[in-house]
Structure formats: structure tokens, C-alpha cells
Amino acid sequence: MRRFFPRSLLGQMLLAVALALLVAQALSAILQFRAAEQRREMYAANQLAFQLIADPRFDYRLRNDDSRIPGDDKRRRWQRLRVERTSDYPLMDNEQRDAAGEELLRRILSEQGIEPAELIVTRRRVADDDYVMRIAQRRGNWTTAPEWTQDDMLVAGLRRVGEDEYTVARFPYSDRGDSKLGSLVAQTLVLYIVLVGGLALLLRRITRPLAALTTRVETFAATRAIDGQIEPSGPEDTRRLIAAHNAMERRIAALLDEKDVMLGAIGHDLKTPLAALRVRIESVENDTEREKMAATIEDITSSLDDILSLARVGRPSDPLERTDLSALLSSVVEEYEDMGSPVELGATRRMAMRLRATWLRRALRNLISNALRYGETARVSLQRENGEAVIRIEDDGPGIPEGEIAAMMEPFSRGEASRNRVTGGAGLGLTLARAIAEQHGGSLTLRNRIADGAQIVGLVAELRLPLD
């Protein structure tokens, strides 16, 4: 159902108006049909009352469409039939009395001072009425019953007080609903063309600038570049929105430029003293103290690199390049194998996609290093699932408590005591890997490996990237 539901603002608003118009026209049709039915019933009841009271001749149209009858006799205009007076009971077998029609006709007769001893109203097909068919056939001189004999008519039988005979009147009750339905459908189509068509033009003037603004927001989110800002257009509110967005883009771009300048200064002002300090500690005679100092400096330098990388991941300078992802993954695993680390490359599928290889390599190293640090081993695989490249990195470590998995993705977050500073890192590895995945339009998720129903036997890091 959702597949056929319009997703754009223009489509949804037009659908809402079309449905509202459909409901309104349906209610109007119901009211019109009810009013027309009431008018027909009242007119027919008055005609029957007139015949029963005055005993006049009444008109009945004979529509003889037999092609064998030539000239003007093809369609006889009117034939005269007298009101029937009979001692036979007016109601035929298997016919139902029309209680509403009897009540309406009784009220009309009462207004004329006539209180019926018995009054019967029913609906009958013309072809089933012997009296009408006998006279019509004699005067029409036809051998095959014409189409009008399949129509209905109202039959009213009145027996007055003190009389034994019934006065029986008949009135044709043709159904003209089809023509009214056709006019209503035509009216609805005209309303749809005028109202929905005019509204579509108006909404298009509103939604076209909004669609352009949406595209611009998506472009700016991906590139952070202010080139290509759109000109304000459309209604005044939309113009103000576009102008405000353009100003916001300029402010954001200025802040990002200031951030890059600040990060460059921080990197220069901190790394230079750290390098000098690293040289000076070589003069420390105590080997143990010297190694501790060097490890501290190395830890600070590594944390500084992570912080700078995390700050710059939103504005990468290197372009997207088509890369064989399986080859990239194999090269990263080979680096760890060359260092003797227990990293295993599992099943992979060859697939190429546009990505920033340097950044993705950094994300893979962080995830594999985490697996080795807390799980001692790492198993890496690459599969294609639902139009995405899925990189899974599994370990055999203690995992992460379910309530802390989301927090582990935040900056400077480390888990329980086993994940302390001694194990290395400042809690930025997962955050940086997630940011790099999102930079490529993908995602990073963590989940525990469960065995024996509830026991955690490791952690799975799943990095998903959309394929081209």
C-alpha cells in the first residue's frame, strides 16, 4: 500500500484534496439521490391520488422500438388507459405491499377528505400486469413485447367505505438515476480538472523551490561547500527560508574553516613540543623511567592524531576513488599478519566501489586493533547483502554489556575496568570508525556473539557501505 502512496509534498497534498473532493461529491450524490427519490415518490403518489379521486384517463408512453414497424409508428407517443375498477384483489401472488407508499398516499387522500376502507400500493413490472398488457397489445399491434414492458410501475388499489370493488390506478415509475449519475460524474471530472489542476499549479510553485532547497541541503551535507547556493524563489515564506538557509550555510562554512585553522595550529603547537620532549628523554639514564616517559608521549601523540582525524573526517580533502574493497581489506589484514598478529581473513567477495581508501583503511585498523586488544584474535570477512558491502570483524573477547553498546560509540568512552587506559587508546577508535562509515553513507554497528542461549563469547563489529 505504501508503494502507491505519494512520497512528495505535492503528491500528498493533491491526494488529500482529491480524496476530500471525492468524499464531498459522494455525500452530495447521496443527498441528491435521496432528494430526487423523495420527489419522484411524492409526484407518483400525487398522480395516483388524482386518478383514484377523479377517475380520469391517464397517459402512458408506449416506446415501441421494433425496427419492423415503419415510419411514425416506430414510436407511438401516448396511449390512453382508463382507471380499472375490479372486484379482484389488486395484489398479485408473491408481491409485497409498499408500506411507505401506502402511508404517503393515505395522507394525500386524507387531505382530500377521503378515508379509505382499504388501500394497497405495490410495485409491479409492466409485463406482469395483464390489464395493461392486454390493452397496450391491442392498441400497439405488436407481436414482440417492446423494451418498455420491462420497466416498473406503481399500482394503487383503493376500496372506499361501503364499496365492494377496488379502484386500481397505475403510474409508470421509470428510473432515471443513470442519467443523474452521469451528470454527477461529469461534474466531478470538471471539478477535478479545475480545482485539482489549479491547485497543482499553485503547489508546484511552492514545492519546486523546496525540492531545490532539499537537493542543496543534501549537497552541502556531503561537500560542506557553499558553491552553488540557490536563489530565493517562490512565495515570500519560501524565499525567506532559502535566504536564511544560505546565510546559515555561509556561517557553517566559516566555522568549519576556522576549525581547520585552529586544528592545524593545535597540531603544530602540540606535536612540535612533544617531538622535542621525545628527544630530551633520551638523556634519562634510568631505562624504566625513560620507557615510561616515551610510552606516555606516544600515547599523547596517538590520542592527538585521533582527535585531529575525528575533527577533519567531516571535511575530507581527498576525493572519492573507485577501489576494489576486497583488495583493500586483504592489504590491511596482511599488515597485521606481517606483524605476527592473529588476524584471519575469511570469506570475501570481489566488489568495487567509490570510496576514500586512506580513511577507510584507518577505520579498518581501528576495528581490527580493538578486536585484537580485547579479544586477542580477529576474523575479518566481506559479503554483499541487500545492495550493501558488509565488513564483519569478530573477536573472542568478553563483549560489551547490552546497555553500554551505544555509549561505546561516543567519544572518549571506554567500557568496564578491563578496558582501561593501560590497554591503550583514548576511546576514540570506534567513534572515528563510525564517522568514517557515515562519511561514505554507511553505518557501523556492534553486537555481542551469543552462545548457549545467553553467554557472550565475543563481539561483532559490522561496517556497512552502500554499493554504487
From TrEMBL:
Localization per Swiss-Prot or TrEMBL: Cell inner membrane
Any single GO CC term annotated in Swiss-Prot or TrEMBL for this entry: plasma membrane
Matching PROSITE patterns: HAMP, HIS_KIN
Domain of life from the UniProt record: Bacteria
UniProt keyword list: ATP-binding, Cell inner membrane, Cell membrane, Kinase, Membrane, Nucleotide-binding, Phosphoprotein, Transferase, Transmembrane, Transmembrane helix, Two-component regulatory system
EC number: 2.7.13.3
Organism: Croceibacterium atlanticum
One Pfam family in the UniProt entry: HATPase_c
Taxonomy of the source species: Bacteria, Pseudomonadati, Pseudomonadota, Alphaproteobacteria, Sphingomonadales
Ribosomal protein recorded as keyword: no
GO molecular function, one term: ATP binding
Coiled coil: none
InterPro entries: 2C_sensor_his_kinase, HAMP_dom, HATPase_C_sf, HATPase_dom, His_kinase_dom, HisK_dim/P_dom, HisK_dim/P_sf, Sig_transdc_His_kin-like_C
Principal place of residence: membrane
UniProt-recorded name of the protein: histidine kinase
Membrane topology recorded in Swiss-Prot or TrEMBL: Multi-pass membrane protein
TM region positions: none
Gene name tied to this protein: envZ_1
Catalytically driven reaction(s): ATP + protein L-histidine = ADP + protein N-phospho-L-histidine
